Amino acid sequence: MGAGEGVGLTLDTTAGRAAPPARRRRRLRRGLATPALLGLPFSWLLLFFVVPIAIVGAYSVDVFVLFPGPHHFTFTPWRAFFSNGDYFPLFVKSIEMSLSVSAVVVALAYPLAYYLALSGTRRKYILLLILVVPFITSYLLRVLAWKVILGSQGVINSFLFWTGWRAEGHPLSFLLYSRFAVMLVLAYVWLPFVALPIFVTLESIDRRLLEAASDLYASRLQAFLRITLPLSLPGVVAAFLFVFIPTVGEFVTPSLVGGTSGYMYGNQIVDLFQTGFPDWETGAVLSLFLLAVILTLTLVFVRFLRAGETRTA
Amino acid sequence: MEGEPFDRRLSRADMLRLAALAAGAGVVAGPTAAADAAVTHLTKESGQLKVMDWVGYVNDLPHHATYAAYLKKYPHNKPQFTHMASEADALGKFHAGAHPDLFRPYVGWVKYFAKSGLVQPWNPKLIKNFEHLNPFMVKAGQYKGKQYGIPDDWGFDAILYRKDKVHPKARSWGLLFDERYKGKIAWFDDITMIVAAGLYLKAKNPWNQTSAELDRTVNFLKKKIKLTKLLWAYESDLWQAFRGGDVWIAYAWPNDWVTMKKKFPVVYMRPREKPIAWVGMFMLLKGTPRPHLAHAYVDAWSSKKSGKWLEDNYGYGHANTQARPSSSQLLRALQLTNPKAVTLPNAYLDRDIPQRPLYAHLWEQVKASG
After folding, report:
1. pLDDT 10s digits, B133-182
2. Is residue A67 domain-resident?
3. Pairwise CB contact (< 8 Å): A260 & B230
4. pLDDT tens string A1-58
5. What residues in A contact B356, CB-CB < 8 Å?
6. CB–CB of B121/B284 below 8 Å?
7. Tally of helices (H runs) and strands (E runs) in chain A
């Protein structure tokens, strides 16, 4: 007899009678457990996410204003945003950069995670640790180190001069202060974060499915395409979002290695708040627009994922 | 009375005590001692002096040499610093609740802050070194006859270039827009670029351009921004790019020239359209609880010794006309013996931009198009 059955019996024997105080207390505790457990994270979310977003929203419609004086609810900053021809191309450029980085990083991380999870190597956790080791140092340091590598007199260009592949004084100038530099550094920074969720998903795949595929004469490629890949898709999508969401609003890396052409939408938001003249209304509009687009894209991804899961089932 | 410094903080009893002290001390030792006595009395102000200053100064610890006299006088009241990334950043922080005792915007913002009601005038009588400050810069710190800004560091916005790589066609701001050096140019990430481009394009008043002029200037900048490698907001970013050979031409300050000439053959070119001169102005926040400590701090900054230190270590000029740097090159470059160095016919002194929000908005559009 299982434990569950025992509980069932006990419940049956007490049916129709008033529950003893100990059990009432237990039920009460169980009843309170969920709100108590969820209370803290929900309060946290409310206080540090919903309320600040609401404040930003209030700035975007002039309910709150930075400068004292008469003000009233208006959509003027939103209208100005949609009628301005400069913000959208910058937004599209940032989305493109972020999507490219996310796709490339996922493509690079997948084989890595696959090897770690499915190769059966006993050293996989050591290898995982090695993957994460650079993250013991500061983010800023790691990004700045790229300046030393990518600069006109940096490691790569010096190597090219030394080998004679590039003439002295004619460095590859696109390496630093460029869109390429931003994408490269972002890819480097986010690679481990992408590899980890994919690794976890791959590792949780029931190996008996792969054995069954093998027994049914499926080739390794067929087994991968029909079993491993579909089952690891939730991890892939999660990993993709892990990169896409923060990078689309990124501003630190572009300001360090991006130069003029690597300027992103996140930089524009920061600048609106503190450069030239504070324009919190437009800054708030740009922030909320970014949030809305990311939420929409996330929902689309999740929907796609669910549809995929249903098909797999 | 509106605009009078410190009156909010002084009770009638304080005023009587101050008057008695000043009178007594004045009889004994003359006016200077009276001011000292007044300051001594009134510096029983509580709390640490709060200074909002530029990141470059705050992060550079040796810069405490510029207020060494203050530290000597008040060893137990070291200033507590907070950062300002720009005047706009400071303005946003004030409206968001920050309240330092003093901060340092540049001369173009004096009128804006004076009109904003966020600051109060200084009392020059409490700044002993005030009499040695450059009168043109002192005047630039005034609004409606009151001394809202105490001048301190100053310099020029001009063009720095490597003479081994760059051969300008003319001594002009046009070098920043020269197609021959695509990918080797750095602009300053500030609305002053609209002013510099306005000077180059011969706008009637680059600080207050008409709509047509602004359209032309902004379109010009949007077209030319493709030539730039970098828009620098912090000098350290410019130095890294310059040192690394990524940039050969830059909108720059004297300090950048002093720093770069240690490594490269560089020229700090004064364009024929004239450089833009800037002067740092200490401003006193309205209702500050430590006005006299703030005056003592600014007095320390205004000394000849501090001025020399600043010139030697930063390559900036100092408003104290007695301060002289060790380098004769810097002396010449900044024309430190010329009291009118920052004004016409030598340079345009930076000034109020009446359409500042519009300029800022347009500058953001220029950057977005990069």
Report:
1. 999 999 999 999 999 999 999 999 999 999 999 999 999 999 999 999 99
2. no
3. yes
4. 343 444 444 444 444 456 677 787 787 777 788 888 888 899 999 999 999 999 999 9
5. 276-277
6. yes
7. 15, 0
Please tell us whether the domain made up of B50-152+278-333 is placed in CATH 3.40.190.10: yes
Tens digit of each residue's pLDDT (9 = 90 or more) over A155-190: 999 999 999 999 888 899 899 999 999 999 999 999
Interchain CB distance below 8 Å, A280 and B241? no
Residue A252 lies in a domain: yes
Domain ranges within chain B, ordered by starting residue: 1-42, 50-152+278-333, 155-273+347-368
Task: With beta carbons less than 8 A apart as the criterion, state whether B311 and B324 touch.
Answer: yes
Structure tokens at B237: 């970013």
- Provide the 8-state DSSP code for A73: -
> Which residue from B191, B231, B368 is facing A90, i.e. has the nearest CB?
B368
Are B246 and A151 an interchain contact pair (Cβ–Cβ within 8 Å)? Answer: yes
Interface of A with B in 121-150 (CB under 8 A): 147
Residues B149, B108: Cα–Cα separation, whole Å = 11
| Chain A contact set for B189 (CB, 8 A) | 275
Count of beta carbons in the 10 Å neighbourhood of residue B203: 20
Identify which of B257, B178, B236, B246 has the alpha carbon closest to the alpha carbon of residue A259. Answer: B246
The verdict on a CB contact (< 8 Å) between A274 and B365 is: no
Q: Chain-centre distance of CA A76, in angstroms?
A: 32
* CA atoms A171, A176, A181, A185: torsion sign: positive
**Is the model's pLDDT at B270 over the cut of 60?**
yes
- Say which CATH class B155-273+347-368 falls into: alpha beta
Number of structural domains found in chain A: 1
Mean of per-residue pLDDT scores for chain B:
87
Taking the Cβ of residue A158 and every Cβ of chain B, the question of whether any pair is shorter than 8 Å is answered with: no
The answer to whether the beta carbons of residues A262 and A185 sit under 8 Å apart is no
Q: What is the ipTM of this complex?
A: 0.80
- How do beta strands B146-147 and B249-252 pair? unpaired
Tens digits of per-residue pLDDT, B290-315? 999 999 999 999 999 999 999 988 88
Which residue does chain B place closest to A148, by CA atoms?
A: B244
Q: What per-residue confidence (pLDDT) applies to B99?
A: 95
Q: Can B50-152+278-333 and B155-273+347-368 be said to share one CATH topology?
A: yes
Pick the residue from chain B with its C-alpha nearest to A177. Answer: B229
pLDDT at B276 over 80: yes
* C-alpha–C-alpha distance, residues B340 and B274, integer Å: 14
Asked if B21 and B41 count as a contact pair (C-beta separation under 8 A), the reply is yes
Name which of B328, B299, B298, B290 is nearest B311 in CA terms: B328
Q: Does residue A217 belong to the interface with chain B, where contact is any CB pair within 8 Å?
A: no
Distance CA B1, CA B8 (A): 9
Whether residue A274 lies within 8 A of chain B, CB to CB, comes out as yes
Q: Are B167 and B302 in contact (CB under 8 A)?
A: no
Give the range of the structural domain holding residue A245, as residue numbers without chain letter.
86-312
- Whether A36 maps to a domain, the answer reads no
Tell me, yes or no, whether A41 lies in a domain: no
Q: Is residue B278's pLDDT more than 70?
A: yes
* CATH code of the domain covering residue A125: 1.10.3720.10
Closest CA to A254 of A151, A147, A178, A172: A178
